Structure formats: C-alpha cells, structure tokens
Amino acid sequence: MYLVLNKKFKKGLVAAAVVIPVIIIAVIIACVIGNNSVRELSRADIDDNSAVTLISHRGLNVLAPENTLEAAVKSAEYGYGYVEFDIRRTKDGVWVLMHDEDIERMTDGEGRVGDLTYKQIISCRIDEGKNLKDALSYVITVPTLEQMLSLCAENNLKPVIEIKDGGTEYIPELLSFIAARRNTDMMIISFDREQIEYISSFINSGRTTFMREGIELYWLTSDLSDETLETAAKTPEIGVSFNGNKAGTQKEIDAFTEKGLKLACWTIDSPSKLKKLYERGITTFTTNRIVYTFGNSN
Question: Residue 148 — left, alpha, or beta (φ > 0 → left; ψ -120 to 50 → alpha)?
Fold first, then answer.
C-alpha cells in the first residue's frame, strides 16, 4: 500500500512539476499581451470620438519604442490627432527626443544627453531587448525634434512638446526653431512653472514670429491642491495638466474650472478611470494605450 501511494505521490509531483511552470508561463504571456494591448475609447462608454482629445504618451509606446518616429506613426494609424514627446538638448545644441536625463534605458549607449554630442547619440541604437515592442528589421536611432515635427506634418499629427531640460536661457532659440518649422496647432508643456510662464510672456511680447494663436501651454503638475490653484490662477492663459491617477475629484476640478483654468490630465490607461474623469468635466487625456480605433494594423 505504501509503495502504491508513494508511486502515485511521485507521479503527482512530476505532473505538478510540468503543469505549474506551464501555468506560470501562460500567466506571464497573458500579462505581457495585456500590458501591450490597446483599448478602444468605446470601452469608456464614449462613442463620440470628438467628445474627447486623446494624446498618445511618447507616441503609441505600447506598440513601438517611446519617443521615436515609429511610435508617432503608430499614433496616426490608431486615430490620434496629438502625439506627445519629450525633448532634451545635446551638448552641441541639437534638440533630440529623450525622456530621461541619460540614454541608458532607451539605447545601447550611456551618458547624459547634455554631455553628449548629437553624433555620439545617433551612433547608439534603440535597445531592442529592453524597449522594442514590435520586431523591426532595421535599426532605430534617437530622432531629432526637427525630424519629429516633419513627421507630424506628414501624418496630420499635432505635436505636444514636453521640455525636459529646465531653465529659460535657451527658450528664445527653441521657440524660433519651432516657429520656422511649425505648420499646425500644437501644445507646449513642462513641469517647470517658471519656464512655462516665461514661454507665455515671450510669445505674448511679440519678440518672436511664434504666434500665440493655435498654441496651448500647459503646466504639468501632480496634484490639484489649493497651492497649485493659487499659482495657476495668476496666469489663467496657461492650462493645468494633472496626474489623473492621483487627483481629479469633482471638488478639485470645479475649483479650477471656476477660475477659468483649462484642465487636462495624464496618464490615463484605464477606460473606467477615463469615464469617471470625463463625467467630471475633463476632456483632454494623455494615454499610453486608449485609442479611438484599432487602426490600420488590425
């Protein structure tokens, strides 16, 4: 009897040793697929696409590497009208797309953007192993702001430019650069309040050909606190884009809108969360995966 049970027990262990890893692998695959999937706006019970403005976060980065031309093309394919991307200035004054201060997470190189020349940066490739969501047969390098603006014009995308480098000393040069290449409406956003106020005053001063019409400025902030409201109310022409996963109660939203302030939020990936914020009056959302349609790729 003992031997029979022992054999059955051993067989059970063997079966478990085979089945459990399979289950674990299946769960992992399901999670990866789920995390990389896009979700239609209709899942938020919003059937009118014109009711909200969806901004793809760093491009449609669940299908292509963030802050690349490929991610922007995916944004156009899936119905976005706006594409957000981050810019930083190289050591030799070229504006490139990069979220982090350094290039290590996104490329096979290393070093801070501000310490590297443009030639050094484009000699690196976007690291497929870490960041490439779609297998491509060619090398992707870090794009420039000029390349992205050209691509936006070709694909009927409105740029949402997030300035990652702090300070204001280079703003006149940057705005002149953008003005010479601008042919559509756009947004300029920053977490640096002083910077975004400087941009607003510079544009309004007439010291640039960068016309204010068709330009929206947003200050990025985590919360909708009383202190944030007090600061934002001083320059109501600058909108407030807040972290929609940490703020956005009806009371908070009403306090800002009553002051005539434009509100947007980031980064909303849950249709149910988007629906709640939409019902509270928010209509502009930055998102990694919520799309208007499934696009040409499906």
Answer: alpha
